[in-house]
Amino acid sequence: MRLRMPCSDRIGLVRDISIILEERKINIVTIEVEQGAVFLECQGMLQKDTKELIEALERVDDVHSVEITRFMPSKERGEQLDAVLTSVRDGILVVNCDGSIIQCNAAAARILKISPGTMIGQSIENSSWNALVAETLKTGCSYKDQEMFIECISSYCVISTVPLKDTNHEVIGVVIVLRDIGDVRELVKKMTASLPVDFGDITCDSMVMKELILQSRRYALSDSTVLIRGETGTGKELFARALHSGSGRSQGTFVPINCAAIPETLMESELFGYEEGAFTGAVKGGKPGLFELSNGGTLFLDEIGEMSVHLQVKLLRVLQERRVRRLGSSREVAVDVRVITATNRNLEDMVVRGAFREDLYYRLNVIPLTIPPLRERPEDIGLLAEYFLQRFADKMRRSVNGFSKEALERLEQYNWPGNVRELENVIERAVNLVEGSKVRPEHICLGRIAATANPLSTIQFETYQSLKERLAEAERAILKETLRRYRSSRRVGSVLDLSHTAVLKKLRKYNLANE
Questions:
Q1: Name one GO molecular function term (predicted).
Q2: What is the pLDDT at residue 449?
Q3: Short-list 234, 205, 129, CA closest to 382
Q4: Cα separation of 173 and 123, whole Å?
């Protein structure tokens, strides 16, 4: 039975209460004095005895009332504390001044992969954070967000310490806050990640792209390494993000890095991370690499052909062993990462020249994926142009709703050396220039590259040729380029103002009929 007695503070009050209980031979389990009340827990009693006891206690001087309560204050605080510790995702350990663990919540046990009961009473003398806790006990200073390697789980945790002080401001213990590095990365992902890209977000109308997307959906379900090939601006990163979204790793992190954008001296530390003091300028506490940050997700290495041979060796080892070692560290951390790479370079030629390791090439080229340039899928030009037009018109709040026939023809007749990225820029520029509701040819600024994107520029006059020979070579180049763009001999005839029969004869003449 538990009783709460609001009262006025006076000397001898607890003694008077104890005398009443002693006279009735009632055993006191515990008694607590809070400001303005006395709490009493005693052995179980019959209902009539309970009523008599309450009446006797109410007659004690300065006791205002007596009421039955469910909890003693200390027990209530303890249960509230347990509820709080159980509800938080951070691991909480409480250490006394002797370095023994006196409190451990479920999250700490989960992070450290041990049973909560086995932690109580254990010394932290041999733990990774012993030095940090000892310093807090000694100085009373707090430490925030220190990244440390935890031996028992072979991984890193983010650790903070807070001193516990008594009423005299003496340090009597330390609260250790553990954060799972995976939880930290998940939080960073939620705060910084861009919107996910699905294969349905890739705009296309050409059969070659539809077949490529269908093929890529199957590849997404695998964990194998993918090598995406394609010219600059074809959308290699878009496909990489779609592969990640369509995989079983979609809830993990997608981490992109451009190997050509980071100096070689920094690339190694970016990929693999480093320990504190590994080199001059290293961040205090060290830094995880991109392999660790993408653990459980996907790492996208764009422009892989620009990676130095020295880093290629290290990358190959990580792909084979699935373990990574930070610079300046002797420990290896297991990583579960799917690697997707991309390049616009000819890796086969680089392998022959010794600029790219052959063993790494075969490791990366498990699933090859080649994105065709925009000039080889002219059916997509108008569709993409309409998509970009709508997007930029909405963004800039312009009332542009389409292209004139002449503007669309100008877009379709251009060679697009910069591919989809160039088309996007051209449309954005057009939306800025247009004043009416339609984009006209004068709004389509194709730049100086358009002048060099002429099929005639591919003709090489290395030896002397007669006028007839030169005209024939130019005619062949024009036919070849037009056929590649429009894919149909009838469309070629329409564009070049030739009959269908004349086109077929010329294609046979220049041996282009089967191209």
A1: DNA binding
A2: 45
A3: 205
A4: 13
pLDDT at 451: 41
The answer to whether the predicted template modeling score (pTM) of the entire model surpasses 0.90 is no
Cross-strand bridge partners of residue 2 = 41
Residue 221 carries which side chain, given as an amino acid letter? L
Residue type, 266: L
Spatial distance between the Cα atoms of 488 and 216, rounded to a whole number of angstroms: 27
Query: Looking at residue 135, what is its pLDDT?
Result: 87
Of residues 424 and 132, more confidence is placed in 424
CATH of domain 2-73: 3.30.70.260
Q: Where are the beta strands (DSSP E) in 345-485?
A: 367-370, 402-403, 438-439
H and E: helices and strands count for the chain: 21, 20
Alpha helices (runs of H) in 397-466, residue ranges in sequence order = 405-413, 419-433, 449-452
3-state class (DSSP) for residue 180 = strand
Say which CATH topology domain 187-370 has.
Answer: Rossmann fold (3.40.50)
CATH architecture observed for domain 374-450: Orthogonal Bundle (1.10)
Cα–Cα distances in angstroms (integers) from residue 99 to residues 51, 137, 176, 354, 498, in the given order: 49, 9, 12, 57, 92
Higher-scoring residue by pLDDT: 285, 398: 398
What is the DSSP code string of 103-116? Answer: EE-HHHHHHHTS-H
pLDDT digits (tens, 9 = 90+) for 347-397: 998 999 888 999 999 999 999 999 999 999 999 999 999 999 999 988 888
Residues belonging to the chain: 515
* Per-residue b or e along 314-342, where b marks 16 or more CB atoms closer than 10 Å to that residue's CB: bbbebeeeeebbbbebeeebebebbbbbb
pLDDT at residue 201 tops 60: yes
Q: Report DSSP state, residue 412.
A: H
Dihedral angle sign, alpha carbons of residues 151, 152, 158, 159:
negative
pLDDT at site 383? 93
- The Cα–Cα gap between 405 and 382 comes to 11
What confidence category does residue 459 fall into, taking pLDDT thresholds of 50, 70 and 90? low
What span, in angstroms and rounded, lies between the C-alpha atoms of 32 and 39?
A: 5
Total Cβ atoms within 10 A of residue 444: 23
Q: What is the pLDDT of residue 450?
A: 42
Phi and psi angles of residue 342, each rounded to the nearest 5 degrees, phi first? -150, 150
| Percentage of the chain exceeding pLDDT 70 | 91
Comparing 4-18, 129-143, 144-158, 240-254, the range with the smallest average pLDDT is 144-158
Read off the tokens for 458: 């591919």
296: burial class by Cβ within 10 Å (0-12, 13-18, 19+)? middle
Calpha distance 53→22 (Å, rounded):
11
Query: Quick check: 385 and 400 in contact, CB under 8 A?
Result: no
- Give the per-residue pLDDT at 193: 56
CATH number for the domain running over 88-180: 3.30.450.20
363: Cβ–Cβ under 8 A, 6 or more apart, which residues? Answer: 225, 316, 319, 320
Backbone Cα Rg of the chain? 37
